[in-house]
From TrEMBL:
Pfam family name, one: Aminotran_1_2
Organism domain of life: Bacteria
Keyword Transferase: yes
Modified residues (N6-(pyridoxal phosphate)lysine): 231
Keywords assigned: Amino-acid biosynthesis, Aminotransferase, Histidine biosynthesis, Pyridoxal phosphate, Transferase
Similarity-based family: Belongs to the class-II pyridoxal-phosphate-dependent aminotransferase family. Histidinol-phosphate aminotransferase subfamily.
Protein's name according to its UniProt entry: Histidinol-phosphate aminotransferase
Domain Aminotransferase class I/classII large: 30-360
EC top class named in words: transferase
Length: 369
């Protein structure tokens, strides 16, 4: 999009010429492009949320609880149940999606004159959040073919730029794989003054045996683990992301957040959802089964899926990813072209959606290989 000269000239020089981030939101029958859950929120959760909102809406003349204290306690209880790691409410922080908590982290620990590093391909908002807040971004690299992050290479790349912030992603979007646990400790040692963030947006979908970086929080006070209710909790529209860290690190985020950033309805819906965690997470196993089916059936078609710990699968082996993306769209299936040559990313949906995608893909091979 081109902007009128007055606006372009007034814009911060480092933002000129940039285009905004965003996957297309198209009205297509099968939407498998943004790693949302395809399952609606269960009726029992809606009923409880409506009850709670009926009371809370009356009080909307007042600002919300600025410290979202009861939500923090509920998040701590959920993490104890999900990961076995017991944290205090003072170690929890939340925002409007984990994108906002990542922004708070960069506001507090990055910024002009500071450096952040991540390992590409990873979540594309990491460099955008860093750079739009004036932080220098170092594009660290993963293995070009397997997309694995070699522990020694990560340590070397981190040492070479002496960062203020390291942004890791496990399970990694868009590749799907979780990081080896040792990588996090190695990176912490290689960046002796940095805040090390592990973005665990997809943690609930990890294969058995995957350990959460939450286990390391007790020993590492510069470590932050971010999570979200947008994926496994089927609540992308509620906008609730959170993080866990040392209480002093969390307290520092109060310097940069806007007051009352979490609305009363947001806090209410999130608390009700956490009370219903087992019901909301009941679809996780079904989604994992579809993910594994995607890996298996795409490989059988001669494509190259990357093993996944998330609710999506990255696959390679396409002659022209943009052309396949268009052909899938014409067949009523929306997936994501994340800009890796020959690759597309598809979210694991319901069994029916997965079948629709696999059938459409099956019609395109071998011509698209
Ligand atoms: N981290 C990762 C790795 C993601 O893939 C996403 C969503 N695509 C987010 C964070 C942000 O999610 P939200 O703001 O909805 O919590």
């Amino acid at each position: 999009m081109s902007r009128i000269p007055e606006v372009e000239a007034a814009l911060r020089p480092d933002l000129r010429g940039r285009t905004a981030y965003g996957a297309p939101q198209l009205d297509v029958a099968v939407q498998l492009n943004t790693n949302e859950s395809s399952y609606p929120v269960p009726g029992e959760v809606i009923a409880d949320a409506l009850d709670r909102l009926r009371t809370d809406l009356e009080g909307l003349n007042r600002y919300p609880d600025r410290e979202f204290s009861s939500l923090r306690a509920a998040l701590a209880d959920y993490l104890a149940m999900q990961s076995g790691v017991r944290l205090s409410p003072a170690q929890l922080w939340a925002g409007n999606g984990s994108n906002e908590v990542l922004q708070h982290l960069v506001q507090a620990f990055g910024g002009p004159g500071r450096t952040a590093i991540g390992f590409t391909p990873a979540y594309s908002m990491h460099p955008i959040i860093a750079e739009t807040l004036g932080t220098r971004w170092v594009d660290g690299q993963r293995h070009a073919e397997s997309f694995d992050l070699d522990v020694d290479s990560a340590a070397e790349q981190v040492r070479a730029c002496d960062p203020d912030l390291v942004l890791l992603c496990s399970p990694n979007n868009p590749t799907g794989t979780a990081l080896p646990f040792a990588a996090i400790e190695t990176v912490l040692a290689a960046a002796p003054r940095a805040i090390v963030v592990v973005d665990e947006a997809y943690a609930e979908f990890a294969r058995p045996g995957t350990r959460s970086a939450l286990e390391l929080l007790g020993d590492h006070h510069r470590l932050v683990v971010t999570r979200t209710m947008s994926k496994a909790f089927t609540l992308a529209g509620a906008r609730l992301g959170y993080l866990a860290a040392h209480p002093d690190l969390v307290d520092a985020l109060r310097l940069v957040r806007l007051p009352y950033h979490l609305s009363t309805p947001t806090q209410a819906v999130a608390e009700v959802a956490l009370r219903h965690a087992p019901a909301l997470l009941a679809t996780v196993d079904a989604i994992k089964a579809e993910r594994d089916r995607l890996v298996e059936e795409l490989a059988a078609m001669g494509l190259r899926p990357v093993p996944s710990d998330a609710n999506f699968v990255l696959f390679g082996g396409l002659a022209d990813a943009a052309e396949t993306w268009e052909a899938l769209l014409a067949a009523g299936v929306l997936v994501r072209d994340i800009g890796i040559p020959g690759h597309l990313r598809v979210t694991a949906g319901t069994p029916e959606e997965t079948s629709r995608f696999l059938e459409a893909m099956g019609d395109l091979v071998p011509e698209h290989l």
